[in-house]
Every structure is written in structure tokens, then in C-alpha cells.
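Tutorial handout. Part one gives the primary structure; part two gives the three-dimensional structure as C-alpha cells.
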Amino acid sequence: MKDFIVEINPSNELIITLNELRKNNPKLASLALKQLYETGLMQSGIPFNNKDMIQRNYKILKRLFDNESKGPSQEEVKTERLTQE
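Part two.
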């Protein structure tokens, strides 16, 4: 496998939020960082073992669902229709 360079924009909203999450919930931040990294690999067409990514995705969704089931969210929910291009 080739050596790849990953560039991170420190002013990106996701990176800023990830940094805050790292301070408050390092385990969840680690899951999110790995998910972001492998999403970048996928978008770039770089092959990787996606089984780990899928399992991590389920863990993240479970945490999201667990948090949402505790009470109403303060954020506005926006529904999107998924379509194939």
C-alpha cells in the first residue's frame, strides 16, 4: 500500500466539534475520527476493510438512538428523501 497524506482543516465545523468531543467523551471521539478517516478513504476510492467501518457505524447509530430516546432534541429535525443518482 502507498503512503497517503491526510490533510485536516482545523477550521472545519466537524473537526472543531470532534475536538470538543475528544475532551468530553474520548471513546466516542475515537469512533467518530475513525469513521471520518474511513469515509475519506471510501470517497477517494482507496481500498480498505469496510467491515470495521460498518460495525463502527452501528455503534455510533446506537449511541445516537440511545441519546434521542432519552427525551426531545433541541435541534430541528430535517427529513431528506434518499435517491439514487
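Part three, for discussion. The radius of gyration is 15 Å. The CA atoms of residues 38 and 49 lie 9 Å apart.
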